[in-house]
Write a structure and sequence with these properties.
- This protein is mainly β.
- It has one helix and ten strands.
- Strands 1, 2, 3, 4, 5 and 10 form a six-stranded antiparallel beta sheet that branches. Strands 6-9-8-7 form a four-stranded antiparallel beta sheet, with no helix packed on it.
Amino acid sequence: MSRPLPLILASFLLALPVVAPADGKAVSAGKEVALEFTMKLEDGTLVESNVGAPPFEYVHGEGQLMPGLEAALEGQAVDARISVRLAPEEAYGAVDPEAFQEVSAEQIPEQLREVGAFLTAQGFDGLIRVAEVREQTVLLDFNHPLAGQTLDVEMRVVGIR
């Protein structure tokens, strides 16, 4: 999976203390930052990791990361290791009961009429999960697949420019 880290606020920060780097390079607004990260569910299930792959790069302060992740990285030096726990509301949100829609089973390809299957649809930017298959209808879940999940993110700053 190669998508950017989510863009939602995090408040449960378990970060190492900020120590001023000897070379004067620290994560701050406008700096290009390269990260190694691992994202897991609260139970330890791996969601995504780029460890051993090219680093994730972003420009600090431009809203490319969740604000809580940016706050945890602010002032950090190369090689800093940071851990952040995100409650569902601070990550992909709580499960929204209004994000479910029942459609005629005929609208869903037969091979995808099974619980847990993922669909895409023109005009919707995201995955749609088949939540339930009924006799004549299919219940679709438009929530983000990680909605309702607590996430643990481990990050290491690998570069600052």
